[in-house]
Amino acid sequence: MPEQKIAEIAMTRDIMDLDAEQLASVIVSWGLPRFHAKQIFTWIYERGIFDFDAMSDLPRGLRRRLIEECSAGTMRIEETRRSVDGTEKFLFKLVDGGMIEAVSIPASGRVTGCISSQVGCKFACRFCVSGAFGFQRDLSAGEMIEEALYLRHRSAAQSLTHVVFMGSGEPLDNYDNVLRAVRMLNAKHGLNIGARRITISTNGLIPQIRRLAGEGLQIELSVSLHAADERTRSALMPVNKRYPLKDLIAACRAYRQKTGRQVTFEYVLIRGVNSSLADARKLGTILRGFDCKVNLIPLNAQADPGLAAPGRSETAAFRQEVAKSGVPVTVRQPRGEDIEAACGQLRARHERRVCA
Ligand code: SAH
Predict the structure, then answer these.
(1) Catalytic site includes residue 252
(2) Is residue 114 lining ligand 1, measured as CB closer than 6 Å?
(3) In this predicted structure, what is the pLDDT of residue 305?
(4) CA dist., res. 356 & res. 351, Å (int)
(5) Bridge-partner residues for 107, per DSSP?
(6) Which of 63, 123, 120 shows the shortest CA–CA distance to 97?
(7) Rounded distance between C-alpha atoms, residue 124 and residue 242, angstroms
(8) Considering only CA atoms, which residue is closest to atom 11 of ligand 1?
(9) Using a CB cutoff of 8 Å and minimum separation of 24, what contacts does 107-113 make?
(10) Short-list 88, 73, 100, 84, CA closest to 156
(11) Could you report the per-residue pLDDT of 241-255, keeping only the tens digit for each?
């Protein structure tokens, strides 16, 4: 790596934005052996320690230089809340004052971390509060990794086995940083989480889905569908005007073919909007013959007072109707509702406070 590039990285970047090889290059450029990079990675990734001064097996000179020229752990926990069901939510303050949330969701032998990829969101889905206050900025890979490390080391669960990019933001709109974060989550010297335990959820950005298909990653892809016809989907998700449902399904089929990986379609059920049996039949029809899964999510009503979830029996009937098409379909149980950590709720309370 050229000298200047190394200096730039060391001066301007969060150490958690670097992979093991890049950090080793920085250390070597300082005239020190590369094994120190491994030590630093062990402190950060295995122990969740970001404070260079606490890295007691590093030479003092190296610790001082790291403190002066680098950063690690750039965000602060502003608030944590724990649900009766064990779900725990972290509100983080970023270096520039932006706020994001991440959630730890323990369930039968696994702990899933739901992490944010952007501060706010550009896409303004009608039922989701993440976009209700506009878009502020992309998160860096280091910041996303930090969310995951806080969940693993500072949550009551003290564990993190799965990661879903389902917090605020559209991960594929922050493609490079998210892919970098995915690789660090997956790396042996990083968080060492198996690729099949990492899920990217997208609102359906077709060019990025095509690009993702060529990455050679074994990750899970979830696609937020939420409607089975163009008109309804455009009304719920403005992104559908740019990337229509028909083209999106075709891109997902191509993704399945190219990667061999199954796609999961997320479908938020909204009473009187997309939850009728006719809607269920339409969904079954557009997915017929496609080796995929459907995940139904009863709406967590808060973004638009005019929207509500269907009742239990309507939800069950919808599920049954979709199942007739042969597509595996499940209903997702809401978690962390009492602490405003459920789907689509992230960051809303804080923003309301700020914007009020
Ligand atoms: N932008 C990405 C990831 C964030 S949303 C995407 O669109 O997939 C993650 C999931 O939460 C999506 O399936 C989204 O539709 C769902 N969600 C958002 N708001 C919700 C709400 N109010 N109730 C239930 N699910 C919601």
Answers:
(1) no
(2) no
(3) 84
(4) 8
(5) 110
(6) 120
(7) 13
(8) 343
(9) 107/335, 110/161, 110/162, 111/151, 111/155, 111/157, 111/159, 111/160, 111/161, 111/162, 112/160, 112/161, 112/162, 112/163, 112/164, 113/147, 113/148, 113/151, 113/152, 113/160, 113/162, 113/163, 113/164
(10) 88
(11) 999 999 999 999 999
Distance from C-alpha of 229 to C-alpha of 217, rounded to nearest angstrom: 30
In which residue ranges of the chain is pLDDT below 50? Answer: 10, 352-356
- Rounded to 10 degrees, what is the CA torsion of 108, 311, 130, 251? 80
340: CA distance to ligand 1 center in Å? 14
Helical pair 141-154 and 175-186, crossing angle rounded to 10 deg: 40
Instruction: Please tell me the distance from the alpha carbon of residue 104 to that of residue 153, in angstroms, as a whole number.
Output: 11
Contact in structure between 18 and 26 (CB atoms under 8 Å): yes
Whole-number pLDDT of residue 102: 96
- SS3 category, 290: coil
- Cβ atoms of 312 and 320 within 8 Å: the answer is no
The one catalytic residue among 88, 101, 220, 321 = 101
pLDDT of residue 286: 97
> Rounded to two decimals, what is the model's pTM?
0.93
The string of pLDDT tens digits covering residues 192-228 is 999 999 999 999 999 999 999 999 999 999 999 999 9
CB-count exposure of residue 298 (10 Å: 0-12, 13-18, 19+)? buried
109 token code pair:
């032998």
Burial of 323-354, coded b for 16+ CB within 10 Å and e otherwise, reads eebebebebeebbbeebbbbbbbbbbbbbeee
State in Å: Cα 166 to ligand 1 middle: 7
Q: Is residue 300 in contact with ligand 1, taking CB distance under 6 Å?
A: yes
The CB of 166 under 6 Å from ligand 1? The reply is yes
Distance, CA of 265 to CA of 164 (rounded, Å): 14
Does 343 participate in catalysis according to the annotation? Answer: yes
Q: At what angle do helices 20-29 and 3-12 cross, to 10 degrees?
A: 110
